[in-house]
Design goal:
Layout: H1 12-36, E1 43-45, E2 52-54, H2 55-71, E3 76-79, E4 103-111, H3 113-118, E5 124-132, E6 140-149, E7 154-159, E8 164-167, E9 173-175, E10 188-191, H4 197-210, E11 216-218, H5 223-231, E12 237-240, H6 245-257, E13 261-263, E14 275-278, H7 280-291, H8 294-298
Parallel strand pairs: 3-4, 10-11, 10-12
Antiparallel strand pairs: 1-2, 4-5, 5-6, 6-7, 7-8, 8-9, 12-14, 13-14
Helix pairs in contact: 1-2, 5-6
The structure holds D-MYO-inositol-1-phosphate.
D-MYO-inositol-1-phosphate binds near residues 108 and 242.
């Protein structure tokens, strides 16, 4: 990791408070998007006809940005809905010291937007605090994460060296741990597909090579929840080529604090090129399997 990433970490006590802030904000935004879904389901498209953004993505992000700005004016903010311009270092409006803390909130206001559109109950709000520059692979890591499973009303959360937990609807924290899988052939593996038709075709060809080597495949439609499913042993592994920092930041720390591994292809750090999440007993085998197909996706 770079010098930027090595900046002073918040103390254990500060991290605990930041984790609570992430949980509160993610849970509030999740309730907001669920409650308003029926009334405000207006859709526009982004990179392709199937890459959608709903009005509620933008409203959810506004709500999250406002809450974080009020609580943490010195942190930078990087949310999916203005990320197209590639800026990450701007301070939230109204602050005088851009990223004075060296920390950035990386936010997906609705992960699983297509599921949200259809009412398929797998979508989440992901709020993570990261050290380093989230646009540079290998130059950042999450230190706090909260992934609110919007329909279930639960929040998966973690902070560095604080373990991984699920906050239930009753407000109780239940510990989360990866599965004890050791055999890839009997492992349940999640994956996902991008929005570009040609890339989806390449991802499907890679999957066709991989599927004979695992128990079965699941495509849930929310990368943030997929990572939390691996964290909780509901999946043994997950891989995807093409997800973004906001899709992975929150789930990444929940997963690693739950005992899982989160890497890229060929042992690289996780990035938009490739993310491989696994229970430790199958990490090596899943990485080898994904490494053997990753070029099918990278090169048209
Ligand atoms: C998408 C979801 C999906 C994954 C896509 C992501 P979005 O995020 O995480 O599971 O397969 O690659 O883009 O667009 O719903 O925020």
């Amino acid at each position: 990791m770079t010098a930027a990433t090595d900046r002073r970490l918040p103390s254990a006590e500060e991290l605990r408070a930041l984790e609570e802030l992430a949980i509160d904000v993610a849970a509030e935004a999740a309730r907001f998007v669920v409650e308003r879904r029926a009334a405000e389901l207006q859709v526009t498209t982004k990179s392709s006809d199937v890459d959608i953004v709903t009005v509620m993505d933008s409203r959810s992000q506004e709500l999250i940005a406002a809450r974080l700005r009020a609580a943490r004016p010195r942190d930078a903010f990087f949310g999916e809905e203005e990320a197209a311009d590639g800026r990450t270092d701007q301070a939230p409006p109204g602050t005088t010291e851009p990223a004075g803390s060296g920390l950035t909130w990386v936010v997906d206001p609705i992960d699983g937007t297509v599921n949200y559109l259809y009412g398929f109950p797998q979508y989440a709000v992901s709020v993570a605090l990261v050290q380093g520059d989230p646009t540079v692979p290998g130059a950042w890591r999450p230190v706090v994460g909260a992934v609110a499973d919007a329909v279930a009303g639960r929040v998966h959360h973690a902070r560095l060296r604080g373990g991984a937990w699920t906050r239930t609807v009753d407000g109780a924290d239940e510990p989360v741990h990866v599965s004890d899988a050791t055999d890839l052939a009997t492992s349940l593996v999640g994956t996902g597909f991008g929005y570009d038709a040609a890339k989806r075709g390449r991802q499907a060809r890679a999957l066709a090579e991989l599927i004979p080597h695992v128990r079965d495949i699941r495509r849930g439609g929310s990368a943030a929840l997929d990572l939390c499913h691996v964290a909780a042993g509901r999946l043994d592994g997950y891989y995807e080529m093409g997800i973004n920092p906001w899709d992975m930041a929150g789930g990444w720390i929940v997963l690693t604090e739950a005992g899982g591994t989160c890497t890229g292809a060929q042992g690289e750090p996780p990035s938009s090129d490739c993310v491989i999440a696994a229970a430790p007993g199958i990490a090596e085998a899943l990485t080898r399997a994904v490494d053997s197909v990753v070029d099918l996706v990278r090169h048209p």
